[in-house]
Amino acid sequence: MNAAAETAVQPPVLEVEGLKKHFPVKKGLLSRNIGKVYAVDGVSFHIGPGETLGLVGESGCGKSTVGRTVLRLIDPTEGTIRLNGRDVTDLGKTDMRSVRREMQIIFQDPYSSLNPRMSAGDIVGELLRVHGLGSAAEREERVAELFERVGLSRAQMKSFPHEFSGGQRQRIGIARALALNPKLIVGDEPVSALDVSIQAQVINLLMDLQNEFRLSYLFVAHDLAVVEHISHRIAVMYLGRIVEYTDKRTLFTDPQHPYTEALLSAVPVPDPRLRRKKMVLQGDVPSPINPPSGCHFHTRCPYAEERCRVESPALREIAPGHTVACHLR
User: Fold this and answer.
1) 329 belongs to a structural domain
2) Model confidence, pTM
3) Is the pLDDT of residue 243 over 80?
4) Tell me, what CATH number does 241's domain have?
5) Nearest partner of 49 among 227, 217, 247, judged by Cα
6) Residues 212, 214, 215, 218: is their CA dihedral positive or negative?
7) Helices (H), the chain
């Protein structure tokens, strides 16, 4: 039984329903509210045990905000977040403390996400200390095991972040995320700042760790080749909303939303003899402060009709496990 089939019969690790995050726009000496940034505007998905959901879209579409809101690093405006069946949407700081052991994050920038004044071992062991797990000797041994598991040596525990390469720094970030044995890890574009060869090493490491510890990933990225390699299912976001949501094979062979078609047409083909029809989108991404009425994509969609301009399409299932938000499908 493959991973997708297994997760279909097990309770999800993460369930997100109708998630919204609106940031106020303030102006003037009195900081009056003059509008909102609709960063995330009604997103729903689930992730099963040992499964990776890839979240893709252009810069500014809200995908990183989804990841941080799911972890309650920022509070949602509306919606429901359930972790292993427990509603964590409105939990306070005290109650969230125990929940945070079950979900962690790998940040995009391996340079700024590590404290330059702490040794690498202290950075990874800080989570164990904060949560009061084990004695000092036990924590040190746990950190040493994590270092070896992510491809670093015990001797490097005493080194500082500036003494490591970019790939090694991201391995420290991965070790830190693993320290508390979480069930869910959010990867906020964890390989985008790395060289291509190093990207492959880190992606393979993440996949090995997933198989070993049965981790669930929410993998935020804009590189479709990376997402195709690591994900089981993929959600495509545009201007704060999910427009297509299906398994990776279906998405890459039979995309149904015009925006997904445009994203895939922009992926370079490694064989120069092959020719792919390019779908060039016109105009810029609209402002999330004042999104278009109806379908958010209608201002750039080559197939838009009058209905698209006035009526927002619901995300509906057009085939088993394949949902699309488009009036034309």
Assistant:
1) no
2) 0.90
3) yes
4) 3.40.50.300
5) 217
6) positive
7) 3-8, 63-70, 93-99, 120-130, 136-149, 166-178, 196-213, 224-230, 248-253, 258-265, 306-310
